[in-house]
Amino acid sequence: MPVMVKIRGSSVLPARREPVTLHTADGLDLVAELALPPENDPVATLVCLHPLPTHGGMMDSQVFRKAAHRLPALADIAVLRFNTRGTSSVHGTSEGEFDQGVGEQHDVAAAIEYAEFHDLPSIWLVGWSFGTDLTLMHGHDPAVAGAILLSPPLRFTQPEHLAVWADGGKPLKVVVPEHDDYLRPAEARERFAAVPHAEVVAVEGAKHLWVGDAERVLDEIVGAINPAVPLPLPTEWDGPMEVADTSAYADRTTAVFRETPM
């Protein structure tokens, strides 16, 4: 009889995983990975836009790492994650240099184009912190079904970007930690009033980096893009499971970047 084992932060559930190279319109190659459900065709696709690379953000930032390690098996979701220009992780370093969200428009376009060209279904963008600015600034593409924003600081986003999402009507889910460092729920509701159909979800007790709250974030993501999946997601697994080595990320913790100016 199969034994149920607890899904932990380093747990890696089965998926069809392959390294991918994204090619941008301005001639850069970006490091990426695509994780597909182990047996079924995906019912939806998650394109992950990571936090600020100058502060440790990368395709392996913990929420996106856990999404890639769990959602293909638990929710039949394809997960495409990548390092934006100049960003490094254990998967490698993408060409180019960080460009304050400007040149990154080509990175976002390359990821969407890859998903569309490979016939991945129901493409959703999920941005986290800096990635939410990339989503709002550059992600309103005809191929995109909707977007989910995690801890949006609205640092680079301008009113005209919000207006595009308001006019376009694509689903926009905004997940805001109660104790966020940049934009807390009350202010988020005021700022996102510019997008009347945006759904703002406040998460009690959570902070900007979602440490200890990744499971709640994954539930919010799955609830938006594959609502047929029962929630909360399982916390135990009775099939094959590997354990990821996360020691390579010791230099990407909050403490390391505490004194780094934004």
Structure write-up:
Helices cover 25% and strands 24% of the residues. It has 262 residues and is an alpha/beta fold. The chain has a single domain (5-229, 243-257), classed as Rossmann fold (3-Layer(aba) Sandwich), CATH 3.40.50.1820. The strands form four sheets. An eight-stranded mixed sheet has the order 3-4-6-5-9-10-11-12, sandwiched between helices. A two-stranded antiparallel sheet has the order 1-13. It has a two-stranded antiparallel sheet with strand order 2-14. Strand 11 (172-177), helix 5 (185-191) and strand 12 form a beta-alpha-beta unit. Helix 1 packs across helix 6 and helix 2 packs across helix 3 (130-138). The longest helix is centred in the N-terminal third of the chain and has 14 residues, at 62-75. It is globular. The model is unreliable at 253-262 (pLDDT under 50).
